[in-house]
Records
---
Amino acid sequence: MWLVTFLLLYSLPKAHAEDVGTSLYFVNDSLQQVTFSSTVGVVIPCPAAGSPSAVLRWYLATGDDIYDVPHIRHVHANGTLQLYPFSPSAFNSFIHDNDYFCTAENSAGKIRSPNIRVKAVFREPYTVRVEDQRSMRGNVAVFKCLIPSSVQEYVSVISWEKDTVSIIPENRFFITSYGGLYISDVQKEDALSTYRCITKHKYSGETRQSNGARLSVSDPAESIPTMLDSFQSREVKAGRLVELPCIASGYPNPAVRWIKDGRPLPADSRWTKRITGLTISDLRVEDSGTYICEVTNTFGSAEVTGTLTVIDPLRVTLTPKKLKTGIGSTVILSCALSGSPEYVIRWYRNTDLVAVDDYISIRGISNETLLITAAQKSHSGAYQCFATRKSQTAQDFSIITLEARRWSTPGSSSP
Ligand SMILES: *[C@@H]1O[C@H](CO)[C@@H](O)[C@H](O)[C@H]1NC(C)=O
Ligand SMILES: *[C@@H]1O[C@H](CO)[C@@H](O)[C@H](O)[C@H]1NC(C)=O
Ligand SMILES: *[C@@H]1O[C@H](CO)[C@@H](O)[C@H](O)[C@H]1NC(C)=O
């Protein structure tokens, strides 16, 4: 105990003196995509920063500098990139639909953000629609909000109305996570109402109201199951929740059975069967697979097959985080990755791709180790390990300082 305390006291002043110096950091290293409405414009703070304050610069992914374009694009003194609202005739793909990155530089070195996809979305006319439906008393009815494919990515259902009154999901009314309206145990009086969806544009904030659709309700008649809603494929991040819809009409009411990769569903509290579909919470990579939903009544059956892909986001850890050592030392940087495999690693020093030479080598099965032998003062700087897999990118960096030795034996390495 005494010894530990002594060592801590002894080592603290030294570590302190070094750490008070300069540092670089990321304000937001998950920022990789910015979509904005052309009528609103966008303000993007540089995701990288430094202390004491760093010089922040924006570039295009091609390496080209960003220049100010009056009333179109401006980089503020605080490193914030601003793209102003613009009319369709002023659209310039180099400015409004391109990959950018930002760098932060101070005496510790220079780091760069991952590429950030910046994309403008135009205001375009569109309407949303709901089709009339038929159902049997006691059965289920499904209304879908039909959004044109050109804007599907940005427009989502925010609510449903029954006779212009917002529907609160309860009793027989359900709103699925994909914006569908389900009515269970359909009653004759459901035919007296009109049903509309209300949507909102994610970037312009505009809302739209659909036409009013009607439901015609008939008396139950024996019939085989017919699918009303299902899914083909879903890609979701680990840890999130997914709802896989599967619902059918038919009389008697069909029973629903789920099969994953040829087996019944695992008995796990993360899996819940609801009228709106199969809900899986806290998703894990092993939940990926082929799902079959089978609906059966006494007159027959129907089934749909869909695939679920759970992606584990890439995470990168570079060690050591910070290293101050004598000139002539051997420096080893290890880039550890977690998440889905099949990535490509790239190394940067002060935002330039590391070139292998007499001093520097890149080793390991996937280039995960950077080795500097007999390191020179010029090898000081910020080293970054970037890992890319499909559209995912993750990075971590390390500040290396090489200084003249005072008491050490030439050629030996120090921690
Ligand atoms: C970081 O960026 C992500 C992706 O754009 C965003 O969702 C998140 O709110 C940002 N976080 C901060 C602290 O700005
Ligand atoms: C940077 O400056 C601009 C313009 O003055 C301002 O709108 C923005 O909020 C500032 N951003 C930060 C991160 O301070
Ligand atoms: C390692 O890096 C070299 C170039 O530096 C590249 O040619 C090679 O494909 C990389 N290997 C892997 C597994 O990424």
---
Amino acid sequence: MKMLPVFAGLLLAATQASAQDAMLPPDVAAGKALYEVNVPGGYGCLPCHGDKAQGGRDGPKIIGQDVVNIREQLPINDSMSFIELEDEQFEQVAAYLQWLAAN
Ligand code: HEC
């Protein structure tokens, strides 16, 4: 069965990715999920700011942004004002962006 090594490799890669996420501090992991996947009333930051917050098609680099600036920018920026975050979620996204800057 020639396909087996390919499947085994994919499985290993998937296992490594989730193991890595599981080792993140809880607020960083929660922020990563918000950043990459979904926020209430909208979608993640990733489509605009890039997969590692390095800047993307529609948004600037935001690696290392602190919670104060994120809280300030989201509501006043036309591109992002549709995104509604809870207080705790602002903290989590900021924790993830700080973590990216440090890693
Ligand atoms: C639809 C695209 C889009 C999405 C989604 C988006 N942004 Fe933005 N963001 C932008 C654009 C465009 C700017 C630049 C606005 C400007 O310079 O006037 C920006 C600017 C910012 C800034 C200010 C950067 C600076 O240098 O001061 C921060 C912080 C930020 N975004 C955080 C986020 C976070 C966190 C999320 C996810 C919760 C997010 N953005 C989702 C488009 C987006």
